[in-house]
Amino acid sequence: MTTFTARTGSGCGAGTRDLKALPNVVRVMIGTEASTGAVSLIEANLDDMIPELAPDAAAACFAAGALDVWTAPVQMKRGRPGFVMSALARPETERAVAEAMLRETSTLGVRIAHLDRIELERGSFTVEVAGEPVRVKVGKLDGRVVNLAPEHADCERAAHISGAPVKVVWAQALAAAHASGQLTTYTVGK
Fold first, then answer.
1. Among residues 176, 131, 135, which one has the least CA distance to residue 152?
2. Which are the contacts of 37, defined by CB distance < 8 A and separation ≥ 6?
3. Stretch (H or E) spanning 137
4. Are 111 and 98 contacting, i.e. CB atoms less than 8 angstroms apart?
5. Tens digit of each residue's pLDDT (9 = 90 or more) over 103-148
6. I want to staple 61 with a disulfide (CB 3.0 to 4.6 A). Which of 17, 65, 87, 135 is the partner?
7. pLDDT digits over 69-80, tens only?
8. Residues 57-80, mean pLDDT to the nearest whole number
9. Where does residue 3 rank: exposed (0-12), middle (13-18), buried (19+ CB within 10 A)?
10. How far apart are CA 143 and CA 164, in angstroms?
11. Residue boundaries of the structural domains of the chain
12. In whole angstroms, what is the distance from residue 111 CA to residue 97 CA?
């Protein structure tokens, strides 16, 4: 089923012919297709790859357009330990991500599943911790803030510069986000 947003026009009309069983009416609506949140799950089982190469394969998938990449340990045939490499990609980058996984791992093939995904509205703003900028990510559902998290890489950088533990910078960034007044543009959820 296709859903549409931003209807740009509509029209209807009736013919002059009298059809006893059916009405002789047509209605046309012109709009743009709404984002379906479609993603592809691209996976490969790996039991013969050097584990040290997994981060390189993941980086190649990200460079090809993957939204997320992860590995999970599994038991393979004949009791061998292995892992599954998984990547999420939008339909337009599915092929490039699959090819990156094929190139950078020892797999002979990948499987692809097409999924729907529901995403939060996303935004961010910047706070200052120990004189360093730290971005804070905001996730909203129906206009209400349901997720607030400092950007970890920014916390790591600020911690390195200030000499404070990363967890302290993270907590200070979260406190600064609440104190900043910037959440007034958001409705904080309960």
1. 135
2. 116, 117, 118, 119
3. strand 132-141
4. no
5. 999 999 999 999 999 989 989 999 999 999 999 999 988 888 889 9
6. 87
7. 999 999 998 899
8. 96
9. exposed
10. 35
11. 38-116, 121-188
12. 12
The residue assigned the tokens 């743009």 is 32
- Residue length of the chain: 190
So what's the architecture of 38-116 in CATH? 2-Layer Sandwich (3.30)
Which residue has tokens 């996303």? 122
Whole-structure pTM value: 0.67
- Could you please report the per-residue DSSP string of 95-119? HHHHHHHHHHSS-S--EEEEEE---
Over residues 16-38, the mean pLDDT reads 70
The CATH superfamily holding the domain 121-188 is mk0293 like domain (3.10.20.300)
